[in-house]
Amino acid sequence: MTSAAATPPAGPTRRPTDWASAEMRARIRRRYRSERLFRLVGLAALVLAASFLAFLLFTIGRNGLTGFERTEVKVTVAFDPAVLNLRPEQLTGPGAEAALGAADFQTVLANGVTNSLGPDGEGMISEGAWLTLRDMLAKRPDLLGMQADVWVPATSVVDQLAKGRLDRAGRTVSADLLLRYDSLERRKLLRTGWNTAFLSVADSTDPELAGVWGALKGSLLTLAVTLSICFPVGVLAAIYLEEYAPRNRWTDIIEVSINNLAAVPSIIFGLLGLAVFLNFMNLPRSAPIVGGLTLALMTMPVIVIAGRVAIKAVPPSIRDGALAVGASPVQVVFHHVLPLALPGILTGTIIGMSRALGETAPLLLIGMRAFVADVPAGVTQPATVLPVQIYLWSDEVARGFVEKTSAAIIVLLMVLLLMNGLAIYLRNKFERRW
Amino acid sequence: MNDMTNPATTAAAAPYKMRAGEVSVFYGPKQALNAVSIDIGREDVTAFIGPSGCGKSTFLRCLNRMNDTIPGARVEGRIELDGEDIYASGMDVVQLRARVGMVFQKPNPFPKSIYENIAYGPRIHGLARTKAEMDVIVERSLRRAGLWDEVKDRLADSGTALSGGQQQRLCIARAIAVDPEVILMDEPCSALDPIATAKIEELIDELRGRYAIVIVTHNMQQAARVSQKTAFFHLGTLVEYGDTSDIFTNPRETRTKDYITGRYG
Questions:
Q1: What is the CATH number of the domain that holds B167?
Q2: 8 Å CB contact of B97 and A326
Q3: Does A252 lie at the interface with B, CB-CB under 8 angstroms?
Q4: How would residue B10 be classed by pLDDT, with cut points 50, 70 and 90?
Q5: Which of A413, B62, B141, B251 is the one with CA 20 to 30 A from A367?
């Protein structure tokens, strides 16, 4: 050491730096300029991204908010037992539903429309409006034999006219219909209000009767299946790979495979689900259980990767500390490593679940794109999911489906927002410093 | 196995708590420790000194088999705790680590409350049946670690909120809580200021006799102050081992003399 320090390094003698020279000042100016430029470019990128987002949200909001409303027509209906072919005692007891199903509400409604609206009523009432009468009588059997004012859904054209979404001078609306519409409007027989049906029924061929609840519940059931499979399996795989698996060629291969799986296009998983769950295991077609299993296959690698990163980030000193007081490896994992890794695991899981919620392609292949008019009761019943519903509605010809599509997008965004909010909440709740 | 004397009868009488014979450690192909033999006294503080990378920490981690957690580490030779081979196949590592506790270089309290930090060990070993028993263990451990008066009013606060010196004493209290027979300390003061260091040294002095203590240190004054026996390691070998007073005043080996007089290291 001492011998090396004795001989100074050879070379030209160094002159003192002139920090005030013109060259130095120019260098400083250049540095400040590039600093400013970078800040401006960054700000511009942020503004551009924000304006895209604002444009998207504005368009969806403008198109979709009216989708949560519908127009109704006031009709005075006589629940005539003779026309309905119903006796009062049939409305109570176990056979009530069947009796109501067989009753002729269409005629009752048609009579009501003719009597209370007159010629104005033609083409104003939705084809499915009689369902409102049926539900009403089911709730209040005492109405049988009485007269009542009922607000029934109007046709999609009337609905769109009331919301100002149709060009009155355009060719889609006939002059006759406009006259009848204005007459009803003057008679105060029209109202536009909150559409409770939209959030409580499933798909329909008529836009004024279509609801998003079937798809929303399908999505929730599918995600429940996905989560209950891929979270435990993914987390356990991550723990095993990080804490127990030996480092050798096999674990390397597994690691590469998992990383590759996370990048496989989702439609491939759809084909896999079709081959394995439908053709080989013969699970029910179009059902949330199959969709959930398929999405679980797709989400699992994401959770494994996020879990491994989170587990790796737990400082080794915590493991050492626990081992040194005599904790077994399993106790170290479940008492110390997992609680500390949980925020990261949960964040990864929710990102994976958000991706699963928005996934369409694999579900098309396993038959979840079918027209399903019933709200699914369980994971084995035919169902569709929100993104597929959006896709189906965006393909519809009827004008009324435009606002339904955007309204469904709003519902999807709300669910996504809730899930991400939950992720942030859970992360903050479990986050601990060490 | 048969040539071993019965540990139960020799445990109380033997002056040595742990005996290491010809211990070599390999990390993969690299040999980190070469045939080290040391007997650790029952009531002594034993200090390991030596330059960085000399193998003293490696040897310390052999004594409670913490090297098991390092992939590729291999230990040869024989280490006995009360005459029992701790590398024998029947040895339960978890129980061994409860009997041979460890304090690390950097304070590493669990990110839990002070109370939970102490209670964790006794709880997983089932040492307390009731909350009252646990309270007693926590208070006794903190008192022995000289931390009770400073934290008794905030046992529910996070252990990581304490100062560095307090955290290290919390870690010592955590090790004491499971009632070990040996406490291994791996440079326990290297991350602490002189005042906190003085407190830890005082504490080591108080704990002497109750536990066999082995301490790795870079600080030769510390070794001279707290220990009765000192071992000097260099390049993976044990150069000299003897009474601390002899090592520091009258070393047999020139390498030891050069190191403690600051010639290298």
A1: 3.40.50.300
A2: yes
A3: no
A4: very low
A5: A413
